[in-house]
Amino acid sequence: MSLFGVRKTRVQSVSRSVNMRHTKDFDWRPAKNNPFKKKDEQKRSTRKVAVLVSVCVVSFGTTAAILMYHPAFRITDISIEGTKRVASVDVKSVVAGIMEGKRFFFVPQNNYFVANLSDVESILLKRYPIHSVDITKQFPNKIIVTVSEKQATFLYDNGRQYSYIDEDGVVVDVLKNVPSDQWQEQKSVQYAAPATADVSTTTSLGVTSTVVTPEPPVETVIVSRTHIPDVASIQAEFGQLPLIYDTRALEAVKDSTTVDADTLRAVLSYYEELKKRMITPRFIEIDQTGQFGHIKTGEGWDLLIRLDPRVVSTQMSVFDQANAESKKSETAVSYIDIRYTGRAYWK
User: Fold this and answer.
1) Which residues contact 301 (CB under 8 A, 6 or more apart)?
2) Confidence check: pLDDT of 105 > 70
3) Integer Cα distance of 243 and 245 in angstroms
4) Which of 35, 120, 186, 230 is 20 to 30 A from 283 in CA distance terms?
């Protein structure tokens, strides 16, 4: 057998072995997932999620309950700052009372995390003469309430109550009723017209008539009432502020406006000018028109003024001239009138 025959035989045997592969070998497909196995895995995954959610819910609920109900987070330390006229003890008592309530019927209001501080702020603003309220928390059980009180500029007397008012005439707070002993009454005794009565008497000679005149009835009538504020006691009790007695008897209700701002600016200007001249203004009385007033001085005389801030400087120059002339007189002056521009009168 030649060498070429052998080589040929080998090639054919190799070709034959390749061709001998079964046709099923080419019918191969990738393996498919077991549908029953997939359902089992989904169930296990769902159970894991459910357990995880349950654990989270329980943990969250337990944590929330601890934070809301644990005594360590209960607000027990209340600090009040910034009070001057308002008693800090009263403010603290009100805040503590608010904190004793409940939120949503079951959550304690005094809890550090859920305390509704806006409620505290709104109630304090309504209850006290306070301009603003700032409330801050300090972990774990303290709040600091800082108040800014409304600034009272005058003591206002309408004949019924004493009140604080600010520079715009707004009532900051109603202080007390005017005592009855600060009113002086002028009384008059009046007699009614006498009445006569006929009384008949019978005698043996006939009937005679006798006229009897009864005592006339007496009636005491109040002719006038004059209010004289007790300036010393009022200022000692409520502060050394200018006292305004308004004869118009305007209603003084908290946060309402009484005297207009221009009138108050005029009052302050006159007070300052008098003090520069070493004259003590005791109080000012505003007349029924609201345009004029007179200042009662500590020197015993009155200054009649026009309540217009634009004329204060001019009229005080007129006052200086009139005051100098009045001192030349041997008699004491009872008043100086500078109500009219450029003119002054005194008596």
Assistant:
1) 332, 333, 334, 335, 336
2) no
3) 7
4) 186
